[in-house]
Design goal:
single chain; 242 residues; alpha/beta; Dihydrofolate Reductase, subunit A
């Protein structure tokens, strides 16, 4: 894996030494390139093929993952305090409990079956007051592990401060596409880490973000390459007044 671009490294727009673009990047260099600039921070991590499919023909990301993506995927989890995932993606990908706290975002308040027996305290639910399965999830997880954010739908602007108040200030969202779109629309995403795998699959799989139109400008901070797989980190461009 090579660093093609690292704009935050000593203020340079390219690697410092002439051979950096041709030699293997070290683990320490990767950690520095993906370090969280400040806290709280919400980062999204997604993958897509060259023609924009965010999953393979089976509807799962695992069928388009590859070793370079797995390396960055694992790194990003080591830099996070908690992983945030939409309930639909959790069910489709059959997530189990993680080493990190896992935050389920669900308007229905439904806990995916693979998490019902998760160790106590390892799963948090972010839902709304009108969620039809709110009380059942409270009984399963305990009141302290259910965040009621909003009345009829999950108030995503409240998500980051609510988790930061629990000491979870570096957040990693792993999708899915609908949740990513909604987080972008809510203005709470700080950066996007995206892997572009050198494949074309056609079909009707969703893009990285799915839903009503959003227009979110991004600034490329880091770009890596390994055998044609491109891995980038884009920061959301903020209004200087924010």
């Amino acid at each position: 894996m090579r660093i093609l671009l690292d704009r935050d490294r000593d203020g340079a727009e390219a690697p410092d030494d002439a051979g950096a673009a041709t030699r293997e990047v070290t683990d320490d260099e990767l950690r520095a390139a993906y370090a969280v600039p400040r806290r709280p921070w919400l980062r999204a991590n997604m993958i897509a093929t060259v023609d924009g499919a965010a999953a393979g023909p089976d509807g799962l990301t695992g069928s388009i993952n590859n070793p370079p993506d797995h390396r960055i995927f694992g790194l990003l989890r080591t830099l996070a305090d908690a992983v945030v995932v939409g309930a639909g993606t959790l069910r489709a990908e059959e997530y189990g409990a993680l080493r990190l706290p896992l935050v389920v975002v669900s308007r229905r308040g439904a806990l995916p079956p693979t998490l019902v027996d998760a160790p106590a305290g390892s799963v948090l639910m972010a839902t709304c007051a009108a969620a039809p399965e709110l009380q059942e999830t409270r009984r399963t997880l305990g009141d302290d592990h259910v965040l009621v954010l909003g009345e009829e739908s999950v108030s995503l602007p409240e998500l980051v401060p609510a988790l930061a108040g629990r000491g979870l200030s570096s957040l990693l969202c792993e999708g899915g596409p609908s949740l990513l779109r909604d987080l972008l629309a809510a203005g709470v995403v700080d950066d996007l880490c995206a892997t572009l795998v050198p494949r074309i699959t056609a079909g009707s799989q969703p893009r990285m973000a799915v839903g009503p139109d959003v227009d979110v400008p991004l600034d490329l901070r880091v770009l890596l390459d390994e055998d044609g797989t491109l891995l980038g980190r884009w920061e959301v461009r903020r209004d200087p007044a924010e």
